[in-house]
Amino acid sequence: MFKLHYKLERRAIGLTLAIIAAASIGGIVEIAPLFTIDQTVEAAPDMRVYTPLELAGRNIYMREGCYACHSQMIRTLRDEVDRYGPYSLAVESKYDHPMLWGSKRTGPDIARLGGKYSDEWHVRHLINPRDVVPVSIMPAYGWLMDNALRTDDLSGQLAAQRAVGVPYTDEMIANAGADVYGQANPDSAAAAGVTSRYGEATTVRLFDGDPQRVTEMDALVAYLQILGKLTDAASQDTAAVETQ
Amino acid sequence: MLSKLTKGEREGGLIILLAMTVIGLVIAIAGRGDPISAHGFLIMLFSMAVAVPVMRHLFDPEPSRDRLDSYYDDPSKVGVVLTFAWGAFAMFVGDWVAWLLVEPNLTFSGAWSSFGRLRPVHTTGVIFGFGGNGLIATSFYVMQRTCRARLPDQLSPWFVLIGYNLFCLLAVSGYMLGITQSKEYAEPEWYADLWLVVVWIVYFVLYLRTLSRRQEPHIYVANWYYMAFIVVVAMLHIVNNLAVPVSLFGAKSHSLFAGVQDALTEWWYGHNAVAFFLTSGFLGMMYYYLPVRAGRPIFSYRMSIISFWGITFMYMWVGSHHLHYTALPQWVQTLGMTFSLVLLVPSWGSAANALLTLNGAWHKVRDDATLRFMMVAAVFYGLTTFEGSFMAIRSVNSLSHYTDWTVGHVHAGALGWVAMITFGALYASIPWLWKRERMYSPALVELHFWLALAGTAVYVFAMWNSGIIQGLMWRTYTENGNLAYTFIDSLVAMKPYYIARAIGGLLFLLGALAGCLNLFLTIRLAPGEAEAERAGSGPAYGRPSAAALQAGE
After folding, report:
1. Using an 8 Å Cβ cutoff, are A224 and A120 in contact?
2. Are B410 and B383 in contact (CB under 8 A)?
3. Which residue of A has its CA nearest to B209?
4. What 8-state DSSP symbol labels residue B245?
5. pLDDT tens for residues B39-80?
6. Size of interface A-B (CB pairs under 8 A)
7. A241 in contact with B, Cβ within 8 Å
8. Which of A221, B140, B392, B453 lies at a CB distance of 3.0 to 4.6 Å from A207, suitable for a disulfide?
9. How confident is the model at residue B286 (pLDDT cuts 50, 70, 90)?
10. What average pLDDT is seen over chain B?
């Protein structure tokens, strides 16, 4: 073996190829089967895609680096299920390009945050977390309320999502701009289009309380309120862990 | 410095810079209304700033042929300065975000300065700015010496160094502008990623060309590691960053992978960024500078071989230990844990090889802070890899994951291993590069060493404490079967440790600033050395002993 190496280390190309070969195996064996083995991602027929407003909120979540302190992955451990709710299933992040499972909980896990607090709570909390949680160390995100949401690129965002595998229809892509407005303005004519395209259960609300315009706050709160609610698959699955 | 380039190289460089200026302008105009526009302007201004000195020297006479008799070290010199600059900047931001976790209002009201945007500035600045520049600067230095061959041309090393720093600038400024794809340690968007691929290919080809010119029959072990660093980081970078951009002149892209597949790809990348960027590359550094500085040959050639191939093969399997108890299929978690445990063998092989090399030179470790940096780095490398294998065990991970313990572990590696070996290698290189007898102030090196060691110790102990307390509080039940603590309870309990951590980071930062000062003083004031270093016949301490150079036993 050392004799062989004595020869190998005299050849730059041979050494390089050997490095590539040795380093390729692990990734191929572990990652490739995740795309081919069917059980990797559970079936969830009720799973819906993000609305344009929620997707825009998700982009803001990424932009502000929220994932650095909040996980969205409840592990299959008793205390996590007791604290945060049913453990996360792979299917729940099936349309997450990229996933936001996170790796650190400086703040709590928020995989099941949707519906836990009111919109008003979220708005106050994001403007200044210490107004509602005095000992919080979360940053204040005042500019979300000031910034109008950018909507001119949303059709393009949905089209790019479709290119990587999310089943957005042509109609969803074409109406992305109108749907953003409709979801944040329940009294507007555009609101009906949102529920017809994304389902009756879609939350159509005045998320930031301001009917004048659609802000980044609208988008982020809409996203936070959908966390854990794209499918019911996880709550149907909890019986398994509770008997353990 | 620029008159050493041939006329053709100067012209080639200028053409590239002008092309970059035009590309930047096109992006700035076509992308208006999108954050990418700001990056167009950045590319344009950066290219113009580099082009100015090139133009000033464009009509200088052709350099004399005796430049070919000595190694080409100018890019290494600039790389060393950039390493210190990025280190000081990124460590400052690191300590700033550490204080933000103590007092969240210690920042400006602008979005650019919020924790979530600054934190990747810190990680990217340290890993890619500080670490990457250190690796590029030392790799140019080491490959020429160990091949006994000059770099094949003088333009491509500059392209690699300057192009790489443009990537770092795009990355760091992007986060503050809100441009990120949010994949941890791979946050830059698609166009910055593509640019890095171009830079990296030039780097790879440069390395191969230098190796092909070598006058040593064998490729020295340091070059195996640098090679693995270059090749495998390219593989990881390309696969993990596959994405579909929203438009050609828009910053945003959507990752090709989703959910569980994306999670494993991300941590396959993430953990191997640790392996091939922060381990392999720096082991290359260690395998050259430690034996040279100690004046001892590497303890065991066979241990080098086993460690190298063990690390290259096994690290690629272990990323899944970041995903224990998640929605990732358990067979992958188990494979990751198993390989993580076996990985301890080649890791400790490298650490032991380094420490045993010091046998017979321990008196130098005592007297020479530069060598002591490298010795402590090897110790921390051993400690951190042990801790890493331990934390990869599923049941340990159930406690440690999501807590500050991980942060402590990472910093034991980043401060104790990566930064220490880098500072050791840089303090060894600086006098050799600038032809000085020694660093201007050995006392400042000594001060830096103790600040760095104290800072690391305070940091790591603080995070061990907070991480384990956090993990225990989250899983503690009362007698009635209810969770004993709210999340907020655990957050309040962290405060003293977050303060201690920020102080530890501050000590480390102060050490790095002492290093910057010493670098400046050495370049400006330290006494020079009479004889110029010639290719293949450098000063005695700058040249590896024959035993260290020869790969054979």
Report:
1. no
2. no
3. A12
4. E
5. 999 999 999 999 999 999 999 999 988 889 999 999 999 999
6. 269
7. no
8. A221
9. very high
10. 94
0.90 exceeded by pTM: yes
Cβ contact B219–A9 (<8 Å): yes
Which residues are B243's β-sheet partners? Answer: B255
Cβ contact, residue pair A156, B403, below 8 Å = no
Res B532: pLDDT: 43
Q: Nearest residue on chain B to A30, judged by CA atoms?
A: B332
SS3 assignment for chain A: CHHHHHHHCCCHHHHHHHHHHHHHHHHHHHHHHHHHCHHHCCCCCCCCCCCHHHHHHHHHHHHCCHHHCCCCCCCCCHHHHHHHCCCCCHHHHCCCCCCCCCCECCCCCCCCCCCCCCHHHHHHHHHCHHHHCCCCCCCCCCHHHHCECCCCCHHHHHHHHHHCCCCCCHHHHHCHHHHHHHHHCCCCCCHHHHHHHHCCCCCCCCCCCCCCCCEHHHHHHHHHHHCCCCCCHHHHHCHHHHCC
For B255, the 3-state DSSP assignment is: strand
Measured between beta carbons, which residues in chain B are less than 8 angstroms from residue A82?
483
The partner residues of B483 in beta bridges, in order of sequence, read B477
Nearest partner of A193 among A211, A177, A209, A207, judged by Cα: A177
**pLDDT tens, residue by residue, B382-415:** 999 999 999 999 999 999 999 999 999 999 999 9
- ipTM passes above 0.85: yes
Classify domain A52-243 at the CATH class level. Answer: mainly alpha
Of B549, B524, B527, B553, the C-alpha closest to B221 is: B549
* Chain B contacts in chain A segment 189-228 (CB below 8 A): none
